[in-house]
Amino acid sequence: MTARATSARPRRLPAVLLAVLVASCASGKPPTAAWQMDASSALERFRQAYLTGADRWAAAEFRQAREALASTGDATQVARAELTRCALQVAALQFDPCAGFEPLRADAGAPEQAYATYLTGAPLGPQAGLLPPQHRAAASSATPAIQDIQDPLARLVAAGVAVRGGRAGPEVVRAAVDTASERGWRRPLLAWLGLQARQADLAGDEQLAQQVRRRIDLVSGSAKPR
Among 27, 49, 108, 177, which is most exposed with the fewest C-beta within 10 angstroms? Predict the structure, then answer.
């Protein structure tokens, strides 16, 4: 074969690139916007950082997500990010006002407004139907069955809402402790263990209180190796 014949041969596209092009043409759908990818990945990293107690990392990731969402000029998109942050705080028993959401409330959608009210622990009434499906039953029950919620993070949020609304007995706290422990979520685990210890003290269960405080020392790194 001559050099001229070799140079005339059409070059092949890399297999990965060819697959992407074929899939794109076959679907007929426009590519995902950059802001959606940036916001989604940053919010996911924010969740993980917050739940493990990495505050500086969490703050940086949330700032990136919010900036990406704000680029759309859509208040509902930004409101959802703020509610995500507030929900994580409730899951870790931090009951501060949802300050980032309030300036957006008037322009947010009805489901977002209902969810913001839900996070305060206040009764919702008919608005409960606007909540995400996993929260509707918990919002409508005086004794929420937290353990029936399949998603671990939603379970912790619902448990925090129950505490905030004065509807959380020891079984709710125990379910929250187990959930945070199974996922290795240090921040909420320490918060829920603290509440479990206080409940044990009030019930006069000294053995349980001491056991829980040993777990707190273990999680927080205060336990001394032998």
Answer: 27
